[in-house]
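Follow-up to my earlier ticket, as requested here are the two runs.
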Amino acid sequence: MRQKIVSSVTMLALLAASTSAWTKTTEVVITVKKSPVKVELPGKAPFTGQRASVDVAILLDTSNSMDGLINQAKSQLWTIVQQFAKAHKNGQTPRLRVALFEYGNTRLPAAEGYLRQVVPLADDLDDLSQALFALSTSGGDEYCGQVIGEAITRLDWSQEPNSYKAIFIAGNEPFTQGPVDFRDACRRAIESGIVVNTIHCGNRAIGAQGQWQQGALLAEGEFFNIDQDRVVVHIKCPQDELILRLNTELNKTYLWYGDADKRRAYRTNQLVQDGNAASAGESVAVGRAVAKSSPVYGNSLRCLVDTFLEDDQILTKVKEEELPDVLKEMTPKKRASYVNEMAAERSQVQKKITALAAAREAYLTRERKHLTDDDGQATLGDAVVAAIAKQLAKSGFETTSAGP
């Protein structure tokens, strides 16, 4: 006979299995006079969905000394996205949403802690890229505790018990500055299931002394130090030219919908961000193309091809004037056929890019062994990718070694 018994034994069992952001649902069976007692402990329920949620907030110091950090973020965004594309749970890549905050900038109101939410948690990676390339630096006070607290409060973090939720905060001043105690902010984060990874720009010992390491420890994250001024090394690969040509073909498969202004904005921004990536280096443009060939670069509710995969009735719901021009003169049956054609064409292009990306990664691995100017100093992308790989595995994701 199973019954609930509130006793000191039960309380000890509960305390012994205290939960954290990574704790799975646990059953403790206590036998009292041969009568088993089942105690349900709080924690994460087994994953039952198709696509797990991944929510990431990037908090960047944009004070005067951080131009190098911003340049690394621009150069390595798509490398970071590719890391998420390698993750799988239940056979599906996660649904990725990324938010961006800047802090420590004197152009921002002092009354608001010199911080700004630049992009909310969203899956529009082109919008995120646009925001990154628009950042500029200006000296200011850097309030780490306050910006972490704002990220926890303002963002609509996933409530799915199996989601991966993380904050990455990068800067160079002591973690202790500002009116909000970083310890309170980091405890709030982990109590909400959000890990906090801290990235100190500069000497590791100075970062630890400035409490960057303590912040990560409190919120079960990782502590890194990086050289924010290190220029990311770009290696030209034999596959690059063909990947970039395929990216042009990939862009042709997008059927943007919404009012005329939205359709124009979506189409234009995709091309502009291709250009922004190219301006940061050919390898950055290639990395973006590889990321675009993976499911984490999704445009559901913006592109009919992506939306159709989740809602095959979408064509009956979109107003005539919100359809792409190419579909407006077609019959409903022909429209569905055309969307399917674009989906099939995109799939073929993505497969080609994926195969080339795997060969390119093998080439890069070989070439990096010959670099003689590698001083071992990490960059922003190195730190974020290292944390992601470790923490996704801890959250129950499987990862592939290469390609999306």
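Run two:
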Amino acid sequence: MTTAVGTARPAAIPRPTWRWVQIAVAVATLAFLVWRVGTGPFVDGLRAVDAWALAAASGLAVVTTVCCAWRWRLVARGLGVDLPLGTAVAAYYRSLFLNLTLPGGVVGDVHRGVSHGHDTSDVGRGLRGVVWERVAGQVVQVLLTVAVLLVLPSPVHAVVPLAAIGLLALVAGVVLAVRMRAWPAIALASALVVAGHAATFLIAARSAGVTAPTSEMLPLALLVLQAAALPNVGGWGPREGVTAWAFAAAGLGASVGVATAVVYGVMVFVASLPGAVVLVAAEVRVPTRLEEVPDV
């Protein structure tokens, strides 16, 4: 994630420049991987995708998207804005699709916040709701990641205790700053989202031929999910780089990691396609409404 709901943009860098930096980093990461492992793992990943994996990803996406929409609704209520769950689910699917098809990875979130702001006549509050919703999700995801990395072996096991101390201080500050009564429900929704995404990655790994036990794969899955929050191009870039590094460090092979990341990327994209339907339906509905306006 980037300037709006994730990785902060350095204040000294203009927004257009920062956007090009994000794209350049993502493209450079993919180019480096092609140089190191060749195109074979990318092709293998595409070939490994099957109907069962896509169906599983789509089913899990329904659960995670509803949970995300529920979390957004809770945050919006905390800001004094009404948001029906059905509307939130449709908007969230649309934002996921836009995030995965446009550079930067946050265009859909910005669109979601602006659209909700227009609907409630308060764009600023609509954007704040999306920012806090994504921040809440990231905080819970990081907490769960650190907890798993503390318990299970991983390539970063040695530095996790130090990171945990700083993280707890950061989380305490965020909770005190927000002071939302809905935090338990928000945490539950976020935990379910993380579980769904991790399960999707594990299915991708199995599809790519990984036979390592789940206890070994879960820390890697959570590390990759953290990387997916970094600046990217349609979801691609840092995710593949971190997956290759993590798999290599765990003794599974960088090529297998790349293939797994490709499978995961395809699964996530297919699971987001209902968002395209929502997007098209909204574009069709607008002219229809205009035609219904009587002449004066």
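The only thing I checked on run two: Confidence is low (pLDDT under 50) at residues 1-8, 288-296. Let me know what else you need.
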